[in-house]
Write a structure and sequence with these properties.
The protein contains 9 helices and 7 strands, in the order βαβαααααααββαβββ. By secondary structure, the chain is α/β, with parallel strands linked by helices.
Length: about 240
């Protein structure tokens, strides 16, 4: 790899995905240990777990009740799943508040993330959206909420309003999702390192670091494609 070449990491994920936030933290931990961190570009790709979701769901139904319905299990079992995810997240210094979560459609959030990519602040906007959803109980599908959060993450207010008032970046979001379908991505987070090495799910930082090192070392050579799998969220729920 030439001195100035960039190693790109494409990450398919959704805002309404607990494991995606865990995966983001673990990628960050891996990057901190990667000697060539300054030459890595992370691009967040769109993946909607529930494209048919309304902008804001009924706040009278708890996350545990929704999870139980999705998995066809009882609320106590769903609450146990939530406790496990919360404990895992705490290990990565994340404060998951499932009692506050307000699910909704994430399509507009993904459109704003594409604007953020063009403006060089995509990671900051992604982080703000995830924290707002998983910790602060913000309605991630509400345009007014999205506008405020995007501005807090340094996007220009007029540009944000322009995107939300039109179908700007809709094509880019659909392109991300079509690419995901074409390569068989059915759950997120899903990491593609250097366009070659795949890591499925919220793998430990060591696994992601290994993928970074391998992609860097073999960027100009041949090698076997690798796939590592871990906890992920899909249309049927988070496992």
């Amino acid at each position: 790899m030439s001195v100035m070449a960039k190693l790109r990491v494409d990450v398919w994920s959704d805002i309404a995905c607990p494991w995606c936030y865990v995966g983001k933290r673990r990628l960050e931990a891996a990057l901190e240990r990667f000697p060539n961190r300054s030459l890595v570009e992370v691009v967040w790709r769109a993946f909607e777990l529930d494209p048919s979701a309304p902008r804001v769901r009924d706040a009278g139904v708890s996350y545990a009740e929704r999870l139980a319905k999705k998995y066809g299990t009882g609320v106590p079992q769903a609450e146990a799943m939530i406790r496990r995810m919360t404990e895992v997240a705490a290990g990565d210094e994340l404060d998951f508040r499932f009692d506050r979560i307000r699910p909704g459609n994430t399509f507009d959030a993904h459109r704003l993330l594409h604007l953020a990519l063009e403006r060089g602040v995509q990671d900051a906007v992604k982080e703000r959206f995830l924290r707002a959803y998983m910790t602060e109980g913000e309605a991630i599908g509400d345009p007014d909420v999205l506008s405020r959060l995007a501005r807090e993450a340094s996007l220009d207010a007029e540009e944000v309003s322009g995107v939300l008032a039109t179908d700007a970046y809709a094509r880019e979001v659909r392109a991300d999702e079509e690419t995901a379908r074409s390569v068989g991505i059915s759950g997120v987070p899903f990491f593609v390192v250097g366009g070659r090495y795949a890591v499925s799910g919220a793998q430990p930082a060591e696994v992601l670091l290994g993928a970074l090192e391998r992609a860097w070392a073999e960027a100009e050579g041949a090698g076997d494609d690798a796939l590592a799998e871990g906890a992920a969220c899909g249309p049927e729920g988070c496992g």
